[in-house]
Design brief:
A 5-stranded mixed beta sheet has the order 1-5-3-4-2. A 3-stranded antiparallel beta sheet has the order 6-7-8, with no helix packed on it. Helix 6 crosses helix 8 and helix 7 crosses helix 8. With about 375 residues, it is of the alpha/beta class. It has 13 helices and 8 strands. The protein is about 45% helix and about 15% strand. This is Chromosome partitioning protein, ParB family. It holds the Pfam family ParB_N.
Length: about 375
């Protein structure tokens, strides 16, 4: 018989048998499920590692943000109408600032190069710490142009809340110390205002000088202290305290201390003279300090010091200071010759005028 040929015979090439070194066991083959589980575990480990790195980076960024915030280096655009200027008493003299126009022109041309500093006060409000003139310039530009998009906000470094009031005063003072035009009279005013603030711990103006002007030299602090009695006793009368030269202020302080009635005589000479110039006021002070025109020009002796009118009765130098604890906080009272001052962290303008007038009248009646 003829042998039938099988269809579909497949001849496979002969390959070498897979061999392994002696003593080794062939690796077991993993099924699809085991492979998927392994890949999922590796992916979870990678994700956990990445999440840990992200958390570490976020923690570092948060710590850096807190550090910058405490240093007042976080800057934002703050609306002008959200900034208050009531917490710190400024050293600025009343009246227009003759140099403000130059600052306004500079900001209009090249912008603000140094942000102001503010402290958060809650409810979207901020308290100004540094930058009174810059803030005033922005407000003037907004008023002149009406461009709220450009001048309605101001760059401001935000100081962390909770800083001591003395620290805020020092920041303001240190900024003012670099101003070339700040006078000893203005610095004496700052010391007096600091001592009069019921929220500060030091109420002696002489000691306040050491706190506020710590960065100044001993001699400069001594000059500031010499100006304090001049500012304290003539501050409400003088219009140009910031124009008093150092030598004149020191001489005037000595004359006030040595010659009774000097303060009252100066007040009498300047009373009602509202249109006087800087020169007019300084000439009066020089006359009472013994620095006449001949002395300023280096010719001859000084003009006789003292009032040109009959002597005035000596002015009492005593001053009484005390504090009262009220629901609104500590009220500081200063009583002096011809002056009674009450400082309390409260907005007295919010009280009805008739009620306020009745309260003051009742108090004065009790003092009769």
């Amino acid at each position: 018989m003829t042998r039938k040929r099988r269809m579909f015979d497949i001849e496979l090439p002969e390959g070498d048998d897979e061999t392994f070194p002696a003593g080794n066991v062939a690796p077991a083959r993993r099924g699809p499920m085991a492979t998927a589980i392994t890949e999922t575990a590796e992916s979870s480990r990678d994700r956990a590692r990445i999440e840990a790195q992200i958390r570490a980076e976020n923690d570092a960024l948060a710590e850096e943000h807190v550090r910058l915030k405490q240093a007042g280096l976080i800057t934002d655009l703050i609306p002008l109408d959200a900034i208050d200027t009531t917490r710190l008493i400024r050293d600025r003299a009343p009246g227009p600032d003759p140099e403000l126009g130059e600052l306004v022109d500079s900001i209009r041309d090249i912008g603000l190069s140094n942000p102001i500093r503010v402290e958060k006060a809650g409810e979207g409000r901020y308290e100004l710490i540094q930058g009174w003139r810059r803030l005033t310039a922005y407000r003037q530009l907004l008023e002149e142009t009406g461009d709220a998009a450009r001048w309605g906000t101001i760059p401001a470094g935000i100081v962390a809340r909770g800083a001591e009031l003395s620290e805020l005063y020092r920041r303001m003072v240190d900024e003012n110390m670099v101003r070339k035009d700040i006078s000893f009279g203005e610095m004496a005013q700052l010391a007096l205002h600091y001592a009069m603030d019921p929220l500060t711990e030091e109420h002696d103006a002489d000691k306040a000088v050491a706190i506020l002007f710590r960065s100044a030299g001993y001699q400069k602090r001594s000059y500031i202290r010499k100006f304090i009695p001049v500012v304290e006793r003539l501050g409400e009368t003088l219009q140009f305290i910031h124009e008093i030269p150092r030598a004149l202020g020191l001489a005037l302080a000595d004359r006030i201390d040595e010659v009774p009635g000097t303060v009252a005589a100066i007040k009498a000479d300047l009373k009602g003279w509202d249109n006087r110039s800087v020169k007019d006021e300084l000439d009066v002070l020089r006359r009472y300090a013994g620095q006449g025109a001949s002395v300023r020009e280096g010719q001859g002796a000084a003009e006789p010091a003292g009032p040109a009118h009959p002597p005035v009765a000596p002015e009492a130098r005593a001053r009484t200071t005390f504090q009262l604890t009220r629901p609104q906080g500590k009220a500081k009272c200063v009583a002096a010759n011809g002056r009674l001052e009450i400082r309390l962290p409260r907005d007295f303008t919010a009280i009805d005028r008739r009620r306020l007038e009745a309260a003051v009248a009742s108090m004065l009646d009790q003092l009769e």
